[in-house]
Amino acid sequence: MQYVDDAIGRLPPMAEWEREVRIDHVYTEAMLKFCAALGIPPLGELLSSESGRIFCSTESLAPSHDLPQEGRAISVWVRNVNLEHQVEFHYSTRHVRSDTLRSDLREGAVVSIVAELHAQTPEALVFRPLVMGAPWLDAGQGQPDFEVTWWAHDFFENFVEDIDEFSRVRDVPTPPSPDAMRQVTEAAFKTCLARILGDAVPHDWGGEQSDYYCAHLHLNGRPATAAFLLKGPAHFAPMGLNHLGKNNDQIVRLAREPADMLVVQHCHDILPPVRDTLRAFAVQPSRPRRYCLIDGRDSLRLLQAYDLYDCAVAMGGTS
Question: Which pLDDT tens digit goes with each residue over 278-319?
């Protein structure tokens, strides 16, 4: 509260409505600093570990068409994992300051939330939001750490051609299907990835949280670290959450890496639940990071751009 009081005390004179908005921002900033300092997890990690009471993440909420102007409201999480309980957010609409947020809650939207578990009923886990609003592109440094032209991307999402070291991909058209990637094993793709990035090929070990970690990528000329989750053609089919480990926890472990960007690569298409889950873990309001999905078509483009497809096929090995 001393931090909050000091920040409010530094506000210049302004209209009362503007002052209320600025005070809301002070409380929001204090809450996000709290979450960052204590390592408050995203909702998916909280649910998978079944421990803890507070989460901080960016999630999809279902429409609440009957959202009242006054009184209590309920928004339901659009879940992408199998749970015994529905996840609900109970809140007072009196504290919904923005007409845009009110409209988003009515229609359903992607929302950044810090919330505390309030109760568990036979049907639902009930959370009370402490902070709820649109994801914010400025990660708190005063100036965005990326080019303004990237603001059109979906909340910190990057594509394979945005990575400077993969820039030749821009000259390769997207193939009609990922079928050619059926011949490229995970080990072969990792070897080619290391070759493109000028790295030694990392060896697998039981305690790894990612399949590949790079400390010297560049995004629009600026250095960045990246952690990769790689999936070969052992299951040559579109990637759903059931592809991500026995407990669907590989993205959870990927997000624990100290990386600026989280990357999921697959030899086939990548389904929306995987994209939503990766975004939820990457775009934590208290620790926003970039994320990238490289599906089978983009994987093939990458190999072709650097003349490595035939080499990858020749490597063989395990998937």
Answer: 988 888 888 888 999 999 999 999 999 999 999 999 987 545
Q: What is the DSSP string of 73-141?
A: EEEEB---S--SSEEEEEEEGGG---HHHHHHHHH-EEEEEEEEEEEE-SSEEEEEEEEEE---S--SS
The per-residue pLDDT for range 24-38, each reduced to its tens digit, is: 889 988 998 899 888
Instruction: Return the pLDDT at 204.
Output: 65
- How many angstroms separate the CA atoms of 117 and 74, rounded? 14
Nearest alpha carbon to residue 274 among 296, 228, 241, 235: 241
- Residue 265 has a pLDDT of 96
C-alpha Rg value of the chain to the nearest Å: 22
Residue 274 corresponds to which amino acid? V
CA distance 28 to 85: 29
Ranges of each domain in the chain: 39-133, 148-315
Digit-coded pLDDT (tens) for 47-62: 888 888 999 998 889 9
Q: What are phi and psi of 75, to 5 degrees?
A: -115, 145
Which two tokens mark 156?
């910190």
Q: Take residue 267 and report the two structure tokens written for it.
A: 């030899």
What whole-number distance in Å separates Cα of residue 230 and Cα of residue 213? 11
pTM, two decimal places: 0.73
Q: Can you name the CATH fold of 39-133?
A: OB fold (Dihydrolipoamide Acetyltransferase, E2P) (2.40.50)
The most distant pair of C-alpha atoms in the chain lies apart, rounded to whole Å, by: 70
pLDDT at 197: 92
